[in-house]
Amino acid sequence: MAILLAPAGSPEALNATLEAGADAVYVGLKGWSRGGARGELDWDELAGAVRLAATRGAEIQVALNTIPKPRERAALLAEIPRVARMGVRTLIVNDIGILDTLRRRFPELALTASIGCGAQTAADVAFLAEIGAAAVVLPGTLDSDEAAACVAVGGVTIEIMLHMVEEFVLLGKCSMPSYVHLRPTAMPGGLPEATRQTGSMKRGGVGACFRICQQPWVLEDGAGRRETQMFPSRQLARLPEVAGYVAAGVGVLKLQGRSLPPERLGPLVGRYRRALDAAQAGEPAPEQPSLGLPPSWTVVGR
């Protein structure tokens, strides 16, 4: 039976997602996730999140989805036992080297290859499963037939990011901010003397987005200014296809939105909860109230 995995960027957002019916919630640990405006939890908040989720019969998953520099790698690995002692059993990672290392050092943990690992085909899924992924996240740009082909690999749970921002730079792989904001900042929760480039997602950056892809680009030629252009970006919602993905054997329906405030996040999770319940009961998709997400959400926190 498929489950609904929702985001939370704060304790308040966690409450909203659980109230809306999430089966599991993923959060970022301060200093070790692509946090930025998306929000991250500190250690005390993470402990509280695990306790609260347990009372609701839900699971907390921790996104450790930075790509640490070599000197940061040991510090990250040293945090894993503390996370496990809190009762966390699933880590979401963005780097295949970290995935492989965690598999060998912490075989008791379930590892998810995040959407940033770039899996889009059955071959990708088979590779990530071979190096230790218990679950692989596919982008919602894949339809249910493509998801079914990945499910057929077997031995690994397929997750589909049903509600996400589709960017021309590919989700989680944008390195444009680091070209503009080269101001190193201290790493919260990391090495005392370590710094990282604000905005660099690929190299242990905080993931803060300066909306570079949402700024107009002026095209000029020899005669001067010719045209102003925008790169494409859209909010991708697969709500009508929930039943198809469930029929395809997808194990986890995942939503993006750690940057959303609780009042926006709760209704989003509730829509997919109702759609999933109907699909699993073999009932028609229910009528859904207006979502009310602002158009600017396509770039909030990214």
Basic shape:
globular
Number of strands: 13
Overall average pLDDT: 83
The chain-level structural class is alpha/beta
Secondary-structure element order, N to C:
EHEHEHEHEHEHEHEEEEEHEH
Fraction of residues in helices?
Answer: 25-40%
Poorly predicted regions? 198-207
What can be said about the biggest beta sheet?
8 strands, parallel, barrel
Please tally the helical runs, counting DSSP H or I stretches of 4 or more residues.
9
Which sequence of strands runs across the widest sheet?
1-2-3-4-5-6-7-13
Rg measurement, Å:
19 Å
Note the beta-strand portion: 15-25%
Q: Note the gap between the termini.
A: 32 Å
What keywords describe this structure?
302 residues; alpha/beta; 8-stranded parallel β-barrel; two-stranded antiparallel ribbon; 13 strands; 32% helix; globular
Task: Please tell me about this protein's structure.
By secondary structure, the chain is of the alpha/beta class. The chain contains nine helices and 13 strands. The strands form three sheets. Strands 1-2-3-4-5-6-7-13 form an eight-stranded parallel β-barrel, surrounded by six helices. A two-stranded antiparallel ribbon has the order 8-9. A two-stranded antiparallel ribbon has the order 10-11. Helix 5 packs parallel to helix 6 and helix 6 packs parallel to helix 8. The radius of gyration is 19 Å and the shape is globular. The two termini are 32 Å apart. About 3% of the residues have low confidence.
